[in-house]
Specification:
By secondary structure, the protein is an alpha+beta fold. The protein has one domain: Beta Polymerase, domain 2. Strand 5 and strand 6 form a beta hairpin.
Length: about 210
C-alpha cells in the first residue's frame, strides 16, 4: 500500500458516513478522506469486527485511525484497538485462521501482521478498571454506507492512552503531546477533569497545565 502525505484512511469517499453525533459529550464524527483504490482497511475492519461480534468482545478503536474517525487528519498504516484482555482468547485463533501472524505479545499488548493484503493490527489489553471503563464509554459510528458499525474510544480516553504511551516510552513525548493538543484544540465540550485525572495518575499535572 502506498501512502501520500494526505492519506490516512484507506477508503473511498462514499464509504464513510461523513457527519454524525454520538457519545456522552456529543462528539463530532466527521471523517475526511483521500481516495485510494486499495480496500485493505475496509476488508480488515469487516473481518476483525465480525470476530468481535461473534464472541461478544468489547473493543474501541484508538490511535491514528481513531483520531481520524473523530475528524483529525492522521497518517496511519495500521489499526489500533483497546480490547478486553479476556477477549483475546477467542480473537487470537480467529486472526491466525485469517492469515495473521502474532509478532509481539505481552500481558499488556499484542501486535499482528498479515502475510498478504490485510492491515496490521495493534491491541492494547484492557483488564484494569480504568481501561475497562473506557470500553463502556465508546462512541459508535457507521462506515461503508452504514453497513458496518464500529466502536471508537471517546477523545478523552484516546488522550489517556497517549499519556500511557508516553509513560511506557518517553521518546514518544513530543509526538503524543502534539496529538493530545490537537484533540484538545479541535474537540469542544471535552471532559477536562477526566483528562486532568489521566495526567495526574502519572504525576504529569505540570504538562496538563502547560497545554490546557
Amino acid at each position: 500500500m502506498t501512502l501520500d502525505s494526505r492519506l490516512y484512511l484507506n477508503l473511498p469517499p462514499s464509504a464513510v458516513k461523513k457527519e454524525g453525533r454520538g457519545g456522552h459529550h456529543g462528539v463530532d464524527i466527521k471523517v475526511l478522506i483521500t481516495y485510494n483504490n486499495s480496500m485493505d482497511f475496509q476488508k480488515t475492519l469487516r473481518i476483525v469486527i465480525e470476530i468481535f461480534e461473534k464472541f461478544n468482545v468489547k473493543y474501541g478503536i484508538t490511535g491514528g485511525f481513531g483520531m481520524g474517525l473523530l475528524g483529525i487528519v492522521k497518517a496511519t498504516i495500521d489499526i489500533d484497538f483497546l480490547i478486553e484482555r479476556d477477549g483475546m482468547k477467542e480473537t487470537h485463533p480467529e486472526l491466525i485462521k485469517k492469515g495473521y501472524e502474532r509478532i509481539h505479545f505481552t500481558n499488556n499488548v499484542s501486535q499482528y501482521t498479515h502475510k498478504r493484503e490485510l492491515i496490521d493490527l495493534d491491541f492494547i489489553h484492557a483488564f484494569r478498571e480504568i481501561s475497562l471503563s473506557m470500553l463502556e464509554r465508546t462512541v459508535e459510528c457507521s462506515l461503508f454506507d452504514e453497513k458496518l458499525r464500529i466502536s471508537v474510544l471517546q477523545p478523552e480516553d484516546i488522550i489517556g492512552l497517549k499519556i500511557q504511551a508516553i509513560v511506557n516510552d518517553d521518546s514518544r513525548f513530543y509526538k503524543e503531546i502534539a496529538d493530545i493538543q490537537e484533540i484538545m484544540e479541535m474537540k469542544e465540550h471535552l471532559d477536562k477533569e477526566r483528562i486532568k485525572y489521566f495526567f495526574s495518575l502519572f504525576g504529569m499535572e505540570k504538562t496538563f497545565n502547560e497545554i490546557n
